Amino acid sequence: SWESAVSAAAAEVAKLREEAAKRVAKARDQPKKWREYAAEAAAKASKPYLDTATYAQQSAQQWHLRADGELAEVKRLLAEGLGTQAKDAETQAADMYAKAKKAMESAKEYYALAGEAAKRAANNLVFPPQKQ
What we know:
The chain is mainly alpha-helical. It has helices at residues 2-29, 34-79, 83-123. The mean pLDDT is 92.
């Protein structure tokens, strides 16, 4: 019946919750390994640089998309025989591509800084006091 099925499912869920609580308690009692502390320190130290690198990549992508749109405009203008306007649009597209390239170079620099920050953090790791 429906009630017995729901009751059996509820019992199984309760059993799974109990097992999960036991695993959490056991994991809490286990001391962290050095690599876990190092990974946490490296992640914390590199996060600002990685965030900035991500923003720079997004900026580069936006400039690249705008330049692609401008090149489409160049082709349209050339097809209509408007060479002077096409030349101006081509210059703007080249400028946008240059900005995209500069933003990507900036992202690469920030990735390198993130790597250096992560290494420093891992090498200068200070362990928390031992639990008594």
